[in-house]
Amino acid sequence: MINFNVPPFTGKELIYIEEAIRSRKICGDGQFTKKCSSWLESYTRAAKVLLTTSCTHATEMAAILSNIEPGDEVIMPSYTFVSTANAFVLRGARIVFVDIRPDTMNINETLIEDAITNRTKAIVVVHYAGVSCEMDAIMDVAKRYQLVVIEDAAQGVMSSYKGRALGTIGDFGCYSFHETKNYSMGEGGALLIQDPQNIQRAEIIREKGTNRSQFFRGEIDKYTWMSEGSSYLPSELNAAYLWAQLGMAKEIYEDRMQSWNYYDELLSDLEEKERIVLPKITKDSVHNAHMFYIKVKDVKERSDLIFYLKGKNIHTVFHYIPLHGSPAGKKLGRFHGEDQYTTIESERLLRLPLYYGLEKDAVEYITENIKAFYN
Ligand SMILES: *Cc1c(COP(=O)(O)O)cnc(C)c1O
Fold first, then answer.
1. Which residues contact 300 (CB under 8 A, 6 or more apart)?
2. CA of 113: how far to CAs of 67, 94, 170, in Å?
3. Of 3, 25, 45, 130, which has the most beta carbons under 10 Å away?
């Protein structure tokens, strides 16, 4: 069976986890958490990177830091993971969904301005498949209406837009290190902060509303309850796992890119024959080979293809039932404008197996079977 995903494992994980155990520090913010956040800070050039228990939690922190209040409206695409919306719903916001672009499956930047009302507080962009949204246009609208921009860059670690790391262009960026992402710690994520003025408050929110981070740095002589907060820091055991991945970030990137490019090459004739559509990378975007998907004719053809490939021991998946049509989405949000692409394009998309260490033979076997299906 060719699995859809295999969590990344480089070999160093066990050594680092053992080191964490032997150091007698397995709670958060030990040496491995520090190594990971420093690495991410120097790679992304964010003012601050805080490791979190998930991307979901990083987004919740961003929602608190953005001062979202009940009744505020937050604009985002409907084609996304539930956490993108939940983080803001938990602060009492109403979600305003706008349509996506069919080429990248990202929010259509030209539709955002029309969805803004006097209650709009933030725009949340999702860099689908690690391919950047059109950030210049989005930052321009945000600036004119004084809106906060949060980047759900869960899939965008090691991707960039005009040379800038995804997650560092808006006010806050959120990364995921879930086992299905390019770099993993089981469950985990990171919050990227641009404005140094937000750092101290973020540290407090992450540490149960206390100033314990400052205390550990020796900046104050006792720590106390300062504000609202929760527990958003991951264990050292998870950070140790991630450190093994970041230490080989380039190798993992190149390995995934090789598989991605090979899929693209082997499936290009099916696209020329107009049987399927392949992913498009926009000109200002450098992607990270997070995902290889194909788009087929419709939902029926997709079901048939999934079934066919399953019979050949190939596991493929699709995702994101658009949020605006879900029970929670209907209650907590609304779709602004016309759903021209969100639903139709989401029903056509199928993700192929892609993970660190995927064999060349496997890519050949998978693409041959897709071709056989169309013949
Ligand atoms: C994976 C993912 C998340 C959630 O990440 P977790 O680390 O599992 O919380 C959020 N948004 C998008 C777009 C994702 O792909």
1. none
2. 21, 17, 17
3. 130
**Sequence-ordered alpha helix ranges (H) in the chain:** 13-22, 31-44, 55-65, 82-89, 135-145, 199-206, 212-216, 236-246, 249-272, 299-311, 327-332, 342-346, 360-374
Q: What is the pLDDT of residue 198?
A: 98
Per the listing, tokens 């929010």 go with 107
- Alpha carbons 271 and 371: distance in angstroms, whole number: 11
The predicted structure's pLDDT at residue 55:
98
Cβ neighbour number for residue 196 with a 10 Å cutoff: 9
Q: Is the CB of 56 under 6 A from ligand 1?
A: yes
pLDDT, residue 34, reads 98
Ligand 1 midpoint to CA 176 (Å): 6
What pLDDT does 157 receive?
Answer: 98
- Type of residue at 151: E
Q: For residue 374, what pLDDT is reported?
A: 97
CA–CA separation, 92 and 94 (whole Å): 7
Q: How far apart are CA 186 and CA 283, in angstroms?
A: 33
Mutate which of 52, 54, 81 for ligand 1 pocket (most atoms within 8 A of beta carbon) = 81
Distance CA 258, CA 332 (A): 41
Residues 260 and 27: their CA atoms lie apart, in Å, by 37
User: Under a CB-based contact definition with an 8 Å cutoff, are residues 305 and 273 in contact?
Assistant: no
Positions in the chain whose pLDDT score sits under 70: none
- The rounded Cα 128 to chain-centroid distance in angstroms is 7
Q: Report the sign of the C-alpha dihedral through residues 329, 62, 56, 158, in that order.
A: positive
Task: Please give the pLDDT value at position 51.
Answer: 98
Q: Is any ligand 1 atom within 6 A of the Cβ of residue 245?
A: no
The Cα–Cα gap between 287 and 41 comes to 19
- Token readout for 184 is 């993993």
Q: Does the beta carbon of 53 sit less than 6 angstroms from any atom of ligand 1?
A: no
Six token digits for residue 170: 């808006």
Q: What is the DSSP letter of 12?
A: -
